[in-house]
Amino acid sequence: MTPTVLAVIPARGGSKGVPAKNLAEVGSIPLVARAVRAALGAPEVTDVVVTTDDAAIARAARTAAADLGAADRLHCVERPAAIAGDTATSEAAVLHALDVYEAERARSVDVVLLVQCTSPFVSREDIDGVARAVAHEGADTAVTVAPFHGFVWRDGAAVEEGTYGVNHDKSVRPRRQDRPQDYLETGAAYAMDAAGFRTHRHRFFGHTALVATDPARVLEIDDPHDLARARALAPLLDPSPLPSLADVDAVVLDFDGTQTDDRVMVDSDGRETVAVHRGDGLGIAALRKAGVPLLILSTEQNPVVAARARKLQVPVLHGIDRKDEALKQWCGEQDIAPDRVLYVGNDVNDLGCFALAGWPVAVGSAHDSVRAAARAVTTAPGGYGAIREIAAWLLGPTLTTTPAPAVPTT
To answer: Which H or E run includes 26?
Structure first.
């Protein structure tokens, strides 16, 4: 029998460090909605309960579930004032939510999860990991952790020996590879056997499984500085939304570093050659066949750009100093709204076009600043099938993606 797994998200309205914290937006999504999305997206989770004393939080949670087409799996429980204050424990909120859910749904819960809104980058894989550990792998409890290699110190002013190392002898500095592996509790997701949780009334009992997560995603929001960091990291850590053909009216492509790997071979006579990907040509041909207007826009005044454009049967503008101005003029001539353009680039000279286009897309090998400014990033690097990958986003099943060839390493 499939176990019933209930994810409980405590989200009270009061917060002193960050007012209305659980409604604060990271990546344009309220924290409570981020937690709801992750929990509902975890295959092991049966249902999700948001326990809150705030009507606005409940509305945001319901909206998030409705957007996923999972409104029937989201339940909002009114959190009593007695367990909604600053001193109330998360365990008390989870126990109350568990009781209400079982009474209202007339079904018993096998595994109960605690998922924290204050961990904005908790993923469905994290939630699935702790759920599986208890539901299928014999653990009584489970917690998300991140590998940790730091030296931890404590100010021991009140202790005879003074300042001391917690996880190391301060008189010895062993190499990282010679030290035992430490793990940092992330605060993102916990799982407990429901019967054991009711008995022990705390989140750690019996055998506790450690479920490792990506250290880069570990962040707990306790103050405004944490919130600012989360907002800065969201463009890099959040999954990129992918456009469909209904989202764009034209595709404009940079050339060097986007359709090539950004390298140039120069012979003894100064002639330049580049390598392109046949899969990109297939993707461009499929877009052209589908009637999508295309343009190659390049800063380089190079015969190879024009030759490739002729081969692909795509108009080209090259030798352009201000690519954003050229893109704006081309959109006007074609009667295409810039916010309906998908623009693909890889370097800082593409950022002007990124600001103009509705769908700025970076190839996987793009400069960090370009990746951060993009709405979507390809898996493939420039010159290794990135354009074919984008064509597959737009055309769906009519152009199934295949893995790009391995990138040469040096």
So the answer is: strand 25-26
